[in-house]
Amino acid sequence: MTRKNREERETKREKKKKGGWAIAVHGGAGVDPNLPQQRQEEAKQLLTRCLNLGISALRSNLSAIDVVELVVRELETDPLFNSGRGSALTAKGTAEMEASIMDGHGRRCGAVSGLTTVKNPVSLARLVMDKSPHSYLAFSGAEEFARQQGVEVVDNEYFITEENVGMLKLAKEANAIVFDYRVPAVGLETCGAVAESPIMMNGLPISVYAPETVGCVVVDSQGRCAAATSTGWLMNKMSGRIGDSPMIGAGTYACNICGVSCTGEGEAIIRGTLAREVAAVMEYKGLGLQEAVDFVIKERLDEGKAGLIAVSNKGEVACGFNSTGMFRGSASEDGFMEVGIWD
Hints:
Radius of gyration: 18 Å
Helix content: 25-40%
Number of helices: 9
């Protein structure tokens, strides 16, 4: 993000009053620079729709935790991004999903991994938080808990799209793990999956594709912060792989100061405990929200590529990323609203 763009963003934020509700959503950091214009517009329309859904809920006085669940459920239901229906496929050709949710009021949290039949993973994470003595359930235990709670389940085929079947074939032919991205039916030769200089994850090459994790952060009119993140994660990943999205403090965090949802290279986000770091530098360094986001993106990712969205208990909203673009949108009670992809 250039200095000029950051200054323009700060000017917009300075015009908005302190306090009141605020919301931000994301659909993943790291966007193919050759993304067709039609796909860009589809992404912006979905982000706008989800922002408006959250805004309506906040105006109806729903709590922050209810709003982040509501918005992420909407993102999971639409196959455009990589969560719920449309999730990236494992090397075995199945969808394995994960999600987490955190209520800053009391720092309550719930997380799930390895889901193959739960239609809305974020809602099962909410039930882990509300209806179990635990914070994190995974694989068969999470599936069993889902059935005990009576959540909606579907066949794994529900999550699999024709586009992702094609993406998995492409990944296998390249013998690589691929950051998932909705590939157009034509023009594969111009897309990032055939990048000549792949990025590294834990020392291993990975073809460059947008990791379209979804997330939402909200501060309500009472100053309560919440965050939720959901993903199908890496195309052609090893079965059983767990990323940052369900890890409290890494992909998701909320407390009485702020709420944060991250997206990008999961292993780098985990090592940097990225989401928690935003809250930590606000608390211990006294940084403002955008300052904290910028510091964490610059100082805690090492060579990793990622982005995040955040809100504060003062009604501020911020985002940051060091990747090529991030699908994102934000709004606040005073009428501020922005949806974007690039710097």
